[in-house]
Amino acid sequence: MSSKKSLSATNLAVHQHLGCDLYIHNVYNGAPTSSTFGEGTSAGSPSELTKAQFKRGIDWETALYSWLDHSQLLLKVPSIPLEADSLLENIQADDRSHFFITGLSFWAPQAKLTERFVQARTEPLNFGLAKPDLVEIKRTGDSVQWRVIDAKASKQVKTSHHIQIYFYTLCLTYLLRPPFFRVADSAGIWLPPKDGFQATPPSIDNIKAISISLLAPALDAFLFRELPKVIALPSERVKWHYNPLCRGCRYEPECRTRAQDEGRLGSMPNISIDDAGALKDLLRISFVSALPNRDESLSDIEELHELVANPAKLEDIARSSPTVVKKAKQILSLPKRVRMKKGAAQSPIVEAARTHEIQIIPRRNYTCPSREDIAVIVSIVNDPSSPNLGGDYFCITPYSENPSIKLPSSILCPANEVIAKLATLIRSLAASGIYTSQFYVWSSAEQALLQSHIINAALTSSADDNDIRLCIGALAEGASLLQTTFQPLLLSGALLSFLGKGRKTKEEYKACLTRMGLSTEGPTEVLRKRIDNEVRRMQDESAAHPGYEERRKEFGQLPRVVPLKKEIERQLALPIPGYWDLPECVSALLPSEGVCPSDEQIFTAYKRLKYGKSLHDLLVRRNWLIFSILKDFRARAVSVTGHSLLVNGGKIPSTKFMDICREPHTRKLFFMQQFEVLAKLTELWQSRIDGCPEAPTLEYCNVVQGVNGPEYIFRLLSGTIDVPATDRDYAFYDKLLVLDTPDLSSNEESCENLPVEALFDDLGVSGLVFPLNRYTKASWGQQDPRVQRALVVADVRNVYTDQEKRGTMVALRTWGNWQVLLKAGAVYRLSSRLVDFNTTKILSALFEIDLRWSSEADMYEDEDNGPHDVPFLQLIINPTSFGKIPSAKKYVKAENDIQKLFRDLKGLGNNVAGSLVLKASQHRATQRILSNRLSVIWGPPGTGKTYTISLSLLRLLEVERRHCGPIPKIIFITAITHAAIEACQSKLLRLMDAYRFIDSLPHKWLDEVEVEVVSRGNDHPAPPKSGSGLRIYAGTIYQLSNFTKRNSMEVDCVIIDEAGQMSLGGISLVLRSLSDQGRIIIAGDSEQLAPILSAKYPQLKFSALFGSVLDSLMFSQLSSRASLGDKARPPSPSPADESEFQASQSTVVQLTENFRLNPDLGEFVSTIYSRRFKPQKVQARQLAAALKTLASDDGKQLRIQPHISKAVQTFLVALSDVMFKQPQTVLVAPEVHSITPAKLLGGTSDVSLTHRPVSLALIRLRSWSAHTQHIGYELHVHGEAAVAAALVNSLQKCSPNDDIFVATPHRIQREAVKAALGRIKLQSNVASLEDGFRRMHIGAGASNSKVTVDTIERLQGSEAAFVICLFSLPRTFTSDLGFLLERRRLNVAISRAKTLCILISSDEVLCPSVKVLANEETAKGYAFLKAFEKRAWSYNLSVNMDNFL
Question: What pTM value is reported for the model?
């Protein structure tokens, strides 16, 4: 073995990318590599693909350096290792205040690094030459601030990038010494523009910064503690796993052989490192519970084989660690619920590795057709160094097993020719009208390339528009899926809704007909009749062949382009270790076909010979082999009884593409609403085809008479069911109830035995109110006969604990044909169905807005793409176009007089007048509302948002009456929840009463103000047609939409509360009725949870269409500079962005006075907002005294473990000591202390001398076991819940009149806490938990319930004195970190607290792997959590989980 004995930053980056300790061990110790590297290339000779990828990186660096040089921002230094003094001379010689250094290289400061190793008590390692791409220099006075910037040509930041810039920063920190050099707190990765660096110049805004202080804990531990231990191990003891990431590693051949020979997990294909970890966890748990005579010599594969063959043992493990078993079953392709037959169970994945034979995975498949007349195979050559985003060369070949079919010609052409040729091929396929066809590619990567090429052609290509439209309609995954059998249902409903909203003009009918492709000739009534006939035809098409019948025959949705490799992975287990691609698949399935050309061979032919015969021959052979694999795959994908597992057949191609909106933004939103329906249906289809394995199971008990009819009582056996919301307009019947029949064994598998839910047609009844009436029952009659016989729809009426508190009971109402057949003791499963009353309403509103835009366009011939004075479009395209109102100055002056009057009255002792005085930021918001047509009130938690908009509205009405006289007005107030609407109504009425209470005020105008809640829009009385009344209608967007549809009206002002939770498409329902000069007032908080979207949407360059209406308004400009994250939501600006934010978004006013949060808690929460909060309350000393009373408590809490009870008591008493400024040794003091003046914190200077308010507390939970290092997630949750229950019990003892929230990210945590509380004997004056939940009104402010345990989403909008947040994880379960570390979720949970927030977390969350920081949004959440940790008084609590077994 040679001895390299040093590492580079690149070695560290590769180690992070591979996740392989063996790689870094071999590199440092100089382990020899195989004589070959890659496919047919010698060691040290990179492949053509590798060279192309490398060239892309070089090209990006060249473009970046050229741009910096042209911008006079670049300083080049000699490419030799520089000392600090030499670098100092170069910087001092440059008089620029800001520039970037390139060419820098230096030797790692080995002596300083050795000191760090010694401090960590590990063996020092050697590091070699370091070469950062750039060092950014900012000169400030007599010193310079520097940070490392690395240029990466990837699409996103990776963990491997982070360790490189951290290592460079660490080394330079020792080399560049203060005071002249000051290191910045961040380093950055400079990514190319999203449009490609060949088309768009670089921008400093594309630097993705990461805080060095966030990286340091994890990477210091890795570099100085973990890495030396790995290096020192014997090679046979080093951890490694052979997996798809190993492709191209220099040590791959040896690892591949070892994995197979030793029966490791890597002998199975496509087992990721995380998957391997889950399987190792399962084997570890199995080992702990194994018999003494267990054979320890078994390989991993044999151990899995034996465990799977023992279902009883697997189920026993599942009872204690269900998450581990669930994950393992998914990896090993095991059914989630199995009715056992004779013979042992087997995993096809494991058996393929054991027997070296291909195994069938007996699961149904609806995404690959069982047959088609013509299969079209597409192969794409993609040059990584090319600027083309959608591939560079295409080979498209039609095949058929029917010799009588005349096939279209094959296509072999470069990218710029493919659209025209592909359109010709599609027309040829569609021309027959009788032959089915299906497009295939080999991999998901090729599928993405094809989609990207089609979309980019639509945006930038000079190809014929009809050709592009045809390709989009036939192949583009998004748009083409809209042209399905369900789209006519949605569109017909939208058009009917449009036609039903009052009479239309002839021009509107003609515009509608034009978009539908119909004649526009004839009088108005003929035009209307023509539209109506087309709508009826569309509905008929959905109720007869090929519409409704086709939808019933086709389960789910066949993708227009099927990635065959993905289907094979789902259906076949191949005996190939690590990973496989097309050549390996051909070798396994079709050994007689010979060698398949590899990607490297094809790419080499492309690069060297361009479009020569050799390339064509290789591509045509590749396509033929893909088609041959497809045929072989279908022959194998059958059950034991001979039934095909592929449940769908191919379809006749359709090139229809109904696109009835023309304005780009409404078109996108129009499609988005349909995508949402499709995404929800797809999720349901995926679950139902496997028999709804995640559905809760219920045991039927009995029937009782409820208020509205019989209610069927079940005992919950598995899963969780949400407590029904109390503010629903009516029963949704949003569940399906069927007799539970676990997955059939393989010898019973057939497509005739589809689960009954799989046959349910959601769309046929999604918009109907249950129970059905005589007019709607016909829709139920169109359901499959099995559905009508064996399924009922159900509505959850109540969820409660039985009297013995031994189980959870569920009360259901049902509708269907067989509820009388429910049998006591029988088990049923309860799954979701699609309920959608609103999509057609939104589509209709968007269509109406689009027609209005089109009609206005005639007056804006030179501005075709503008909003054309359509308020909804102004809002999303150009918010500044609303502008000021003409009387703005007069209104503001009059309002100032009103404000002064109330302030003077308050000074005279009139407390009622004092309630009508606005605080400073509230007053700014009111003046913004009075003087502008568009106002955005950014209301962080506890800042009086509802009060502000209510009082601002009254001021607006009073001022308008003074200046304009008695003019009738219609005002809408809307929000996403009934609770928020009722809060607005209540606040308005109280403020109006306050006005009336002041005798000296003229308030006759208030007599004309009517505030009405629209709870049933279709039945609500219309506003009077005469008079001068001021009508304020409050309701959800859907009820207000019904109201305006029934009563045509123009609205003068729309107030949107909770705008951070409301989608743009939804708000069109009320904005379509806004007058051209109407006002829009939007209020909400962008740092709280946003709308939950079912699908993922792309980031748009100039607008944020796919988030909330608040996101769109506040960050439409900032979002073009920042990543929108997984759900396309723009981030909030940091406080550093405040000046730019205020300048560019002047429509936004942030409220800063905080009435809920204590000063120290408000100070922390405000760190993520643009302006700091101004506290309006102080923490009373009573809390400290109340907590102190626990010191004399005996600590006995019924059914709580004594050590937990005692620990919680100790924690709370220590908090009291801290508050009283008394010595204590239990809590760890915070690193960051409040900067709020002591007088504001404590109330008075005297009190602050003896009292320290504390509102942030942290419990570091450590779960442990004497039997195993592996603590299952569920077991950990029970321990966490016990701590939460003990806290609740103690807080209730010392503060019996204060509300308590327990905020849980997950429902499983909620149920565990409820169960733990149910075991405690609560104080007699506290309502039962079940009663509390029945009385709870989420979103209505303070709850009537004393204890509320619920998910964070459902607690949004409410508050409590004490909030306990559960954010901990066990050591072995970290896959949930991205969800837990969402900043909005953390903010909502923490900011519910009025007095004290106790956050329960763990080291796994507080000190996670550096991998989680690669996601920009997760990194923000982690920074927020760390800021809480630094400001909180913390306590370490260990819980023995053995007591919960």
Answer: 0.87
